[in-house]
Amino acid sequence: MTFVKCILPLLAATASVAVAAPAAAQMNHSNMPGMTMPMPAKKAPAKKPAAKKTIAKKPIAKKPAAKKAGPKKPVAQKGATKPADPHAGHDMSSMPGMQTPAASAPPQTTCLPEHAAMGHCTLPTTQPAPPPEPTCMPEHAAMGHCTPATTNTAEGTSFPAGNAPRPPVPTDHAGDAVYGTPAMEMGRHHLKEFHGDQKFFQALLNVFEAQLRNGRDGYEWDGEAWYGGDINRLWLKSEGEAAFGRPVEKAEVQALYSRAIGPYFNVQGGVRYDFKPNPSRVYATVGFEGLAPSFFDVEGALFLSNKGELMARLEGYYDQRITQRLILQPRAELNFAAQSSREIGVGKGLSDAELGLRLRYDIRREFAPYIGVQYRRAFGDTRQFLRAEGEDAAGWSVVSGIRMWF
Amino acid sequence: MIDNVALERRAFLRAAALTGAGFGVAGAMPAWAQPVSGGLVRPLPTVSGNDIALTIGKVAVRVDGKVSRAVGINGTVPGPLVRLKEGQKVRLRVQSTLDEESSIHWHGLLVPFAMDGVPGISFPGIMPRSTFDYEFEVNQSGTYWYHSHSAYQEEDGVYGPIVIDPAGPDPVAFDREHVLVLSDHSPMAGATIYKKLKQMGGGYFNMQRLTLSGQLAGRDLPASERREWAKMRMDPADIADVTGSTYNFTVNGFGPFDNWTGLFRPGERVRLRIINAAAQSNFNVRIPDLPMTVVQADGQNVRPVTVDELQIGVAETYDVVVTPGDRAYSFVSESIDRSGLGRATLAPREGMSAPVPPLRPRPVLTMKDMGMDMSGMNHGGMAGMAGMDMPNAPNPAAVRGVDPSAEQNASRNLWKLTGWKEPTDHGTIKSAAVAASAAMAGMDHAAMGHGTAAATPAPTGSMAGMDHSAMTQGAAGSGSMAGMDHSAMTGAAPTGGTAAAPMGHGASGGSMSHSMRDFSNAPQVDKNPGVQTISPNPVDRTGEPGAGLEGLDHRVLTYRDLVSLNRNPDVRAPTRSLDIHLTGNMERYMWSFDGVKMSEPAEPIPFRLNERVRVTLINDTMMPHPIHLHGHFFELVTGHGAYGPRKHTVNVAPGGKVSFDVTADAQGDWAFHCHNLYHMTAGMMRVVTVRPDQGGNQ
């Protein structure tokens, strides 16, 4: 409070002395919402339209000397003369269950901060104020419907805003007149480049693992990489598998153009090339990729081969955080085909399904070793094709690998 | 004239470079920010005068004993204190030794636009290995700061404080002052941090997310609410994009273990000039056992208001006056996500320290942060619902406790190391074990000025005790809702009724999800993948304490507590109003105004010279955004008439809105942006043009 002493003389020098000084004097008791000191007793708020009128006159009198007085004037008057009337229905007292501040609070604290915020009453923080205008919410005031009564004087920020038109958008750049257009163009290039136009890159190996299964231990990968901006990106995807000591059984690469079509989803189109199994195939592909509600990562694609085979794939996974770093990832992949093709070993309908459950530990977000299990099963003709080659059509594996990205 | 101190330091650095790297690092701190150790007690040396030289260059810094690369000014991070006098003319010769473009922006200083230092808007930028002279008159006083406006250099260390002494007597009386520059220091380069955010969104740095173990332990949110948030693809634990998992929160360039110390004589009035120069971190600032009287905000004097804690948004400044006794005090700047804290000591003698409070539980977002609040909803009878809002209800995470696997940075251990004994301080949230009802009752309503126990579900008190965030909690919610008179809602307008219905059932995401991206609520927003959500019912939250400061048993500053000391220079009514939506997509890490990134390119926001405009910032995202307008001060519309607090930066709460009146009296082109560095670099920025009226309308 020594502080106040120092401040007072200065306040005295300001134009607002008369009103400001008393307020400052009491401020340290009352300006703080958390203060336990008793607040100065105040009269319970009461409606007093007269005060409101005084407030309202000011905008007209002090109207800025702008040229656009035309549109402004009516607005000021509107805000001034009919603060309450379009919102008669707002009267708090008419709301069942609603307590007026005066009724619900002890006598010495008639004004709750929330109510003050709504313009129901005046916190003693501000200067002695005209009686509050309970029907005027700040939101309404901001819209020019009424004049809030929370303030000491109806000036400045307590005025409603007019509806003057927006000025035209200039086509020139102010800096050009000072530094010349060529130099400023360089600066504008920097400005654009570093404020939303950056390009990024990410490569993610979601599955990169050894698989232990009955007699046929092998390995598998499934990853993706992208480069680009926020909306347009180039994607590469690859997945494949092999048994240890044997040639790669399956290997494919996709090159896709990806475009963001919503907050969470991208559409993707491009080509897929299968190196294995022989004979290799080229597919035209179109699909989607994104984040479904409940944070499921999903993707799906249609593939049309150069031999006319039509296939589809659905993939999804979910990261269940057990702790901040221990994450359980259930994962599923379903492959479908519109026809059976012995050549590529794919049967009509649901050709195969893969279900995995991997538990990883994020040593860093970019580097997470994991263990897990995977079940795979072929269906229909695919099953027959596999058996004909002496391979298992279904089976479990225990997997261990590293999820990583950079 | 080049300041002698700077010259001395340079000579010192040269000597240090010869004697060894470690010593050189120790030298890479400005003398005014040296910790009190080894008898190093001296008054603040400053860089001042009419001719000041600043050199931007690469440095090594040591924070809490760890050395990392940074970019500093005159060899230090933060850069030297630039001390000016109101009325003087100054020439600041800024030399860059970098191989990339650079710049210095004088944050909060009213300078001609061509001297404002934003590449591509006010000037071309400082080219690699070249010099640029800034010249302007100093026509103001107060606490400000300066920083690079190029690339990610602000994160890398290119920032420093400015203090301008008033030409006349200072209305603030004080015997001594300390400048406290708060920041977030990472061993990662800013460019890398931004890349990680682009690659993985907010999940990369957040090590305090919701987990299954937390759910099983009954922490944070109950399962039903977790599901509702997940359905909306929203993370209620996403409080900060970049956290203590990479940041060490610094004061004057020193980490919490370094313990920078400012001296005082007991009984002195000590003015602390607190500057949030962080790239991405908002802080909760407090000095346990020492109330702070706020006397200035953003360099502009305000009527003194005494608080125990304040939240300082990125790029804001607060001057507070404290009157410490004959003991040491801990100055604590806790990141709002409570992933770490900065710490300094105020002490009468060197070598002293005080207990440091523990990190409090990381808050979770509530429906209000989604702009789902009822109070601002419509013009019908529902408007009265605002009266039911109790902004001071404790956060669910404060009641239920935070995730057991949540990780914070090393500063989490300081309380043990410094011998903190509970309960010696207010402002410490009750532990998770406290039942919801107890927590509610534990709130000091009298201290909050309520004078009534609002949580009591008696018929009369029920409305006051009603809170939307409380409704989202299990126990606490049902308790206070019991007293809620649902018939009060019967008069609601249709939209109100729709939103109100699910609220009555506690968790409500299912029906909310439909309205979380309704562009009819914001027709001006461009409909594109960069806009994840539109707040259905944004409300003015300037009367609320920041996230996680609800329900504390001590005084917390809100924007509404700020009242300008002097009458505002322009008290005309605004001739028009302008809404600007703050938009983003956390998953893609895209940020924009009205859905349009700076780089699109976005159209400038035009102002007529000297027109007065009411600007309303509407936050459609779940993060706070400290919005900064260059070249102007604006007056917050917080119910203080001609005494609206004048600011250069205002932090808009999630799901909230803030209005300010601004007089566009500075002709030229100006930057207008979110001061979270990575939001700005993602595109949350515009050019504001101020031109004489051409007579044309649009």
Please state the overall shape of chain B, judged from the principal axes of the Cα atoms. globular
End-to-end distance of chain B, in Å?
50 Å
The main sheet of chain A comes to:
12 strands, antiparallel, barrel
- The share of residues in helices of chain A is 10-25%
How far apart lie the N and C ends of chain A? 58 Å
Count of strand segments of chain A:
13
Pfam family, one (chain A): CopB
GO cellular component, one term (chain A): cell outer membrane
Region (Disordered) (chain A): 40-113
GO molecular function (chain A): copper ion binding
Task: Describe the structure in your own words.
- Chain A: InterPro entries: Cu-R_B_prcur.
- Chain A: Residues 1-20 form the signal peptide.
- The complex is a heterodimer of chains A (406) and B (698).
- Chain A has helices spanning 2-13, 17-30, 49-61, 69-81, 101-104, 113-117, 138-142, 174-179, 181-193, 380-388; strands at 200-212, 218-228, 232-243, 248-260, 265-276, 281-292, 296-305, 310-318, 320-321, 326-337, 349-361, 367-378, 394-405.
- By secondary structure, chain A is of the alpha+beta class.
- Chain A has a 12-stranded antiparallel β-barrel.
- The longest helix of chain A has 14 residues, at 17-30.
- Chain A starts with a helix and ends with a strand.
- Chain A has 2 domains: 38-64 and 73-158, no CATH class; 200-405, monomeric porin ompg (Porin), CATH 2.40.160.40.
- Chain A is elongated.
- In chain A, helix 1 (2-13) runs antiparallel to helix 2 (17-30) and helix 3 (49-61) packs antiparallel against helix 4.
- Chain B is of the alpha+beta class.
- Chain B folds into 3 domains: 4-170, Cupredoxins -  blue copper proteins (Immunoglobulin-like), CATH 2.60.40; 206-239 and 364-515, no CATH class; 539-691, Cupredoxins -  blue copper proteins (Immunoglobulin-like, Sandwich), CATH 2.60.40.420.
- Chain B is 15% helix and 27% strand.
- In chain B, the strands form 6 sheets. In chain B, strands 21, 22, 23, 25, 27, 28 and 30 form a 7-stranded mixed β-sheet that branches. Chain B has a 6-stranded mixed β-sheet with strand order 11-10-13-18-15-16, with no helix packed on it. In chain B, strands 1-4-9-8-6 form a 5-stranded mixed β-sheet.
- In chain B, strand 22 and strand 23 (590-593) form a beta hairpin.
- In chain B, helix 1 runs antiparallel to helix 2 (21-27).
- The longest helix of chain B has 16 residues, at 4-19.
- The N and C termini of chain B lie far apart (50 Å).
- The chains are: A alpha+beta (406), B alpha+beta (698).
- Chains A and B meet through helix 1, helix 2, helix 4, helix 6 and helix 7 of A and helix 4, helix 6, strand 16, helix 10 and strand 21 of B.
